[in-house]
Every structure is written in C-alpha cells, then in structure tokens.
Amino acid sequence: MSGPPERVTIKDVAARAGVSKGAVSLAFNHKPGVSDATRERIFAVARELGWAPSATARSLSSQRVDIVGLALCRPARLLGIEPFYMDFISGIESVLADRSCSLLLRLVRDVDEEIALYRNWWRGRMIAGAVLVDFRQNDPRVPSLQAIGLPAVAVGHPSLTGSFPAVWTDDATAVGEAVRYLAALGHRRIARVGGPAELGHSAIRAEAFRSTVRGLGLEEGRQIATGFDEKEGARATRSLLLAADRPTAIVYDNDIMAVAGAGVAAEMGLVVPDDLSLLAWDDSQLCRITHPTLSAMSHDVHRFGAEVARVLFEVIEGTHTGPHQVPTPTLTPRGSTAPAPASHGRPA
Amino acid sequence: MSGPPERVTIKDVAARAGVSKGAVSLAFNHKPGVSDATRERIFAVARELGWAPSATARSLSSQRVDIVGLALCRPARLLGIEPFYMDFISGIESVLADRSCSLLLRLVRDVDEEIALYRNWWRGRMIAGAVLVDFRQNDPRVPSLQAIGLPAVAVGHPSLTGSFPAVWTDDATAVGEAVRYLAALGHRRIARVGGPAELGHSAIRAEAFRSTVRGLGLEEGRQIATGFDEKEGARATRSLLLAADRPTAIVYDNDIMAVAGAGVAAEMGLVVPDDLSLLAWDDSQLCRITHPTLSAMSHDVHRFGAEVARVLFEVIEGTHTGPHQVPTPTLTPRGSTAPAPASHGRPA
DNA sequence: AGTCGGATGTGAACCGGTAAAGCTCCGGTT
DNA sequence: AACCGGAGCTTTACCGGTTCACATCCGACT
C-alpha cells in the first residue's frame, strides 16, 4: 500500500515553497540571503511537510558533526551501580543539549578496544571529539589518540593526560582535608580503601594520604587497593578491621565501597560512628540512603561533567586555552564520622 | 606547519592502489567484483594510509545508519543512583557492538522533549531506530512516534505500547509470587511501596498486588505510590510503619527505595527481618551491599537489554515477528525476609 | 573462427545537504 | 546615461561514499 517510506527532502520543500534548495538551506541555517517573507514561507512549508534537514547529508557537506563520543571501560557490573557516571553524563548532556549535540556512548572491555573504537569513530567522521576518562599512569591512549589527531578532553590530573587538555579536581588537597578532619576528631589510626593501583588518581590520592598522615604525625595508615566494587570494598574493610591494631577511621575512594564497608562493620558488631568512622568519596544519593548516613567528600559531579563538555567544545573549535580545574571536593559530615573512641583517643 | 587536518578519503586510497573508487568500495564491503589480489592491495593501502570509510558519506548514500537512539526521561539525580539503566544499557550495547552499531544517548526532562528529540533524530536520519522506556497509560509517544514512522521497540507491557513491538517482563506474575512468598512466611499484613501512578507498570503491579492479596484472604494491604527515589521511599516507609496496624512486610518497586526503607526501619528501632520483612525489586548490587542483604525479585537486566536490542534490529530490518516476553523476575531470598513476628503471625 | 559468459573493473549518477560564485533587480550616485 | 552596490535568489560544484549500467579481457564451447 504505502510502499517504502518516501522520506521528504530539501528538494521537496524547495519545490513546494517555490524556491531553490539553496534558499531553503540559507533559511534553515539562519543565514542572510533570504527575505523574512520567504524565510517564513519556507518554514511554513517545512512544518507542513514535516521536514528536518538530514544530519547525515549536512555533516557530509559541511564537514562538521554534532556528536561527541564517550567510551566507558569499566566492567558493566560496576558501572551499573556506581552513580558517578550517570551523573557525570547528565552534566555533559546539559551542555551538549544547548548546542543540539548528542552523546555517543559505548561500553568497552579494555583500553585496546577503546582505542580501536575511538579510531574508528574519528576516522569514520562519526564524532567531532571525545571525552576520555579513567586515566592510568602512562596511559596508552595518550600516544595512540594523539597520533590520529582526535580532539578530546581528558578527565584527570594533567600529569597523566599528556597533551590532552585536562579537567580535574584537586584530589590531593581533598585527601589532605579528609585526613585532617579525621585527625581533628582524634583519630590517630586511619586507613584508606583505594581504587585500582593502575588508575592515575588512585596513585595521587595514595601519595597525598601518605604524606598528610606523616605530616600530622599520625600512625602510618594502611592503604588497600581494590577494584572499586562492593565485594572488594567489603573484603578490604574486613581485612582492616580484623587486624590487631584496627583503624578507628577509614577513608574510601568511592561511595559504593563505603556502603559495603558499613555493612561489614555492622556484621562484625561495630557501631558506626561510635566504634568506627567511615568517610566516602564521590558523594551521591547512596550516602544518604544508608543508616547511618555516610559522611563524604562531596563533589558536584554534574557540574564537573558540564565543565568537561564546555572544554571539549573549546577543543573542537580550537579556542581552547589553559587547563581547567574544577572545585576541590569538600567535606560533608554526616552520621558516619564522630570523635575517635576513648580507648584509641588522642593522647593528652 | 601542518595546516588543516587533510583527512584521507576513498579517493586517495583508490589512487594509491591504482584502482577506481568503486573498486575500493566493493573491496571494503566484501562484495564480489574485485580479485583477491586487488582486494589485498586495497586493504594494504588503506592500512598504510590509515583510512576508514566515512560513516557520514556511507550512510548518506546507502540510506542506512548504524546508530540507535535512547532517551531517558527520569530526573538525572535518580538515574544516577538507579543501577537499572546502566545495566540495561550495557545489555543493549552487548548486542549493538556485534553489528558495530552505536548508541546515541540523551537525557530529557519530559515526554514532550523526548518526542521532539526522537522526531528530530528520525527526520534528521540520525538514528535507525529507538528504544522507548517508561511507558505510561495512554502514553503520548505512541501516537506521535507512530505517526512519524519511527522504528522502535517498546519496553513495557503490550497493553501500554500501542503497535510498537513490546519487550516485557510479566510483572503481574512476579508480584503474585512475591506476595505468596511473604504470605507463606506467615505475613498477613503486607504493604507495597510502588512507583509513580502514571507509569504503566506501576498500575499493573498495583492491580496484581491487590488481587493476589485478596485471593489469599490477607488483610487489604496499603499501597503507596512514590516518585521512585530514596526520599519518597523513606517517607512512604515511615508513613506505613507509623500507622496503628503497621505491616509486617513491605514490597518495594525498586531497590533504592528498599534500601531507604531499611534505613527508616533501623532509625525507628525495628529489626529487619525480625520485626519487619523487606522485599526489593530490580535486584542489583545495591541489594548485596546493605546489612542485612535485601531479598529481591531478581531480574537479568543485562539480558533484558540485550533482548531489547535484538528485537529492535528485527524491527529495523522489518523481520519482526511477535511480542517478546523475557523471563519473569524470580524471588531471591536474602537477609531481609523472615517469618512474620509471632504477635502478627498467622492465626491457627 | 565466432560467440558466449563470467570475472574484474570503470564511470557516472546519485544520496541530501552546504558553500561560494553568479545573476537580477532596483534605488541611488556621479 | 552609465555605474555601483547590495539584497535576494539561483546555479553549480562539491562532500565521500554506494550502486548500477556498461566496458574489457580471457578462456571455453560450438
């Protein structure tokens, strides 16, 4: 009956409005060269026919694309639960939407797959640029992607991101603040459950933790590197709490592990925060649904994403200036941190 | 120095390989018409020059796109924390990746924006099809998107999705199972904290809950509709537990609200599961990081997403057959459900 | 010897836009 | 009267692929 869809093109609009394709193009791109009357007429016809310019054709001829790419490389299981990314993505989107640009998302298994993907996307002119996350030390993406000239913004400390423009938070300072806060509460044995050792920011935080602890003259705090998920967070916590000289406070590298840690504490009969203080990172709703609520190093992740997107556009347009630091995470005390228990208290 | 990027095109490859554009195209699409020797040579040159066909140009001429769209309409705050979507998306991706197809993601504020977005994407030939989620009763997307002929697969009960092919889980049966399980544990006053009333599956679950409770001769169970987030989940739980005849078991419509509910119970001095049983929905890691762990109606969300993607391809290719039901969520008992407390137990 | 047919390619048209040059009026200058 | 400049369009040449009708060559068959 209706046969193939027979979709309407610029030619149909032009014919119906009694003008040339060029005129329609000018009108739709809000360029001078057509009178207001004609412009109106063209729009009316377009509306009537239900026409919108083909993004494909448009970007073929204009050599511009309004899609940016994001590849996420953590295991799906983990991505699902970590609130960080969705919030981050929504921040990116908030900026993209203004420029009616869209986000191409792909979950990949490893860095090689990620590099191959970006290469295909870029060479295939599918994306105008990309957002790179989860930098490791000597990240292989830096040379590979720089070689193909992919415009990209890197989320991570400038020391890790090569010549890609970086957007980052000052994790070192934040870790310092966290430790000083706990020390002020009288804690002298503080541990840290960190992310994977290869991840660049893990190393930065670990080093900051070590130096702050030392600077304050606290006991050398144990640090455990994990895979960022709840299982490893629980295991690390258990290991810390079973040690003879168990810590009175633990700092976590994300909120999932902190929640899991709270579960372990409960399971071992320790009362949070009386017996043990817990401090999460990447504050999200997750920290507020538990009982007690979790103190955290908060972070406006949405805004972070938005800033990343803004910088990406600068890169794409070639107007990029310097590196961009976004506000340092700040401490949000809630129910999971309290003065150290008396027996472990600060010596007079 | 290097001037503009000067990206390599099919013409460069053809010239270098000493053949015509057409030959290169044939070779790259694995079509007959070029000898093996020539094909090899072309591939070698392409590799040498770092060329990949432009997706833009390719889809302009072939009239096909390898991108599918997904618009998510819940508030970002909520999306971030709800593990469901990331898991769902990763399931979709697992199928898309095989066909080297990508996912275009956008977060929207409301249904109108969503409709406008899909319309633009489709008319602009940006996507080959779309995944529609969160159906409401008399969903406005059904007429609007059907009118523009968007190929799409609907996630939701067929009674809600109009003529869009549906992929759904049998929520009614699952709710029945949940209630029967609790009844078997001796609970006679069971409540339910549901999602937004407008959402189609909320209505379906509510009705199934009502009829199962009635069928088993239990007390009429209170049901509260919420906005799906942790605040409302907590509030609803509080309201249920403060009532004179408080329930001995509560069924939640997702896992976030269940976790929040557990927090409220703790805050009110009720011990889960001794005083109160809780049952979550959309089982995710979240249910395993709390203490006690949450019993839940589990659901292979990843596989669900994969099935959705498969059906979408059928729709796009016009080979779609019947509606697709994926396995009904099954009960996964954990630490948050137990026999009803004696004082509320089943009468002899 | 003549022809048929498959394998291997070529060339040009086309997809649906954009961009830049060109053409036409038309009022205002010189 | 000849000239100019700008507003308002039209024409035309791309963009980088795909596709299809048509050339060419070569061995085989009658």
From TrEMBL, chains A, B:
Keywords: DNA-binding, Transcription, Transcription regulation. Residues 8-62 form the HTH lacI-type domain. Residues 320-348 are annotated as: Disordered. One of its GO terms (molecular function) is DNA binding. PROSITE patterns: HTH_LACI_2. The keyword Transcription applies. InterPro entries: HTH_LacI (IPR000843), LacI/GalR-like_sensor (IPR046335), Lambda_DNA-bd_dom_sf (IPR010982), Peripla_BP_I (IPR028082). This is LacI family DNA-binding transcriptional regulator.
